[in-house]
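Subject: for your reference before the review

Hello V.,

The reviewers asked for a structural picture of the protein, and I figured it would be easier to keep everything in one thread rather than splitting it across files. Below is the amino acid sequence we used in the manuscript, unchanged from the supplementary table.
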Amino acid sequence: MKKGPTFTFQATREGIESRIDEMEKKIARLRALYESFFMGAERTPPNTLRYELNRQMLEMQQVIITNASLRFRYQALSQKWVLHTTYWNRTMREIDAGTYRRDIARTQRHLAERGGVITEEEALALGIPKTRVKAFVGHARREAEKRSHAPGATAPTNTAPGVAPSAASPPAALGVRSGPPPVPASARRSPSPEASALPGVAHEDFEGAYQHYIEAHRQLGIEAQAVTKDKLRLRLGKQLPKIMEEQNCQKVRLEVAVEDGKVRLRAWPAADKP
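And here is what came back from the structure prediction:
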């Protein structure tokens, strides 16, 4: 007789709930460790904890969760994991290439005052972590060489290598930001009572789903692609009645999904609570 898969925890409601609680805490801890590493407080990324959590996520994918509330928690946790890992991987690539925006922002003012190509000693003095100084300075020098060999190029005075032709340019023009991207003004707009009513979806559920939708765009660095709240509400107002009719349901739940680097908002028939 063929045996089913074996798990490192009991595949009961209590066991699944305990494992999801554990994974939520680990994601929060892993996020804090990565931020410490990106800021230069930690010397190495938290690879061990990430490997352990990735193993648990793969294990949970094999578990059949019959409880609706636990299934919803796991799906939300899975989406959060995808968003975080995408952001971490992209940032690690930027660090390896010497193009990490926080490091660029640290050196921008110094180079605007002094000009020229930054040295490793200067980068260290400005707070660039020792583990990524060589990559950062190397990229800066390569960019300076490209500009110097460009047709019609002049001597690189007051230039911030690796950032833009002129370090005196404002951060907005360079596309550099030192913190999380702002929420679009349209996303903060309070809808009118008439516009807030959606078939099959409570107002607070739509608001929560839209916040996850905006956060997903933030994490991927594509917040400019986010649809405004009013426009998304109009789309759902047309699509939800068709979905409810096809699925023969009275209520739906909204979920945020990431596919091929794009954020989607999906509607599913709402399962009855146990």
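For the response letter, the relevant points are probably these. The CA atoms of residues 43 and 131 lie 7 Å apart. The longest strand covers residues 252-259.

Happy to draft the paragraph if you're swamped.

O.
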